Amino acid sequence: MTQIPTEISHVTAVTKANIYFDGKVVSHSILLPDGAKKTLGLIYPGSYHFGTAQAERMEIVAGTCQVTVDGSNAVQTYQGGQSFEVPADSGFQIAVAEGICEYICSFLD
Known about the structure:
Blueprint: E1 12-13, E2 18-20, E3 25-31, E4 37-43, E5 46-52, E6 56-62, E7 64-69, E8 76-79, E9 83-86, E10 90-96, E11 101-107
Antiparallel strand pairs: 1-3, 2-3, 3-4, 4-11, 5-10, 6-9, 6-11, 7-8, 7-10
């Protein structure tokens, strides 16, 4: 299992928030020196669908969520310290039953 980072150094933070689903999902983008982009975010209780243009890796920093990747019927549970990947041109349903799920989303090549 990959170690989930507790901090990311030498980045540019975009101050304008990405707000989805009436504020139930909020993230901020960070730009890494190599040009890579990540988002750091919070997901409040509810169920939400996200589409992916690019492949993504979602690292769960804290909390618990249930995920179904488009094209699958399998519901997987992830908690702090775990991650999952979603292919490009796809999507996923993510649900948080209680509390707040904190995440890092990395956009993959």
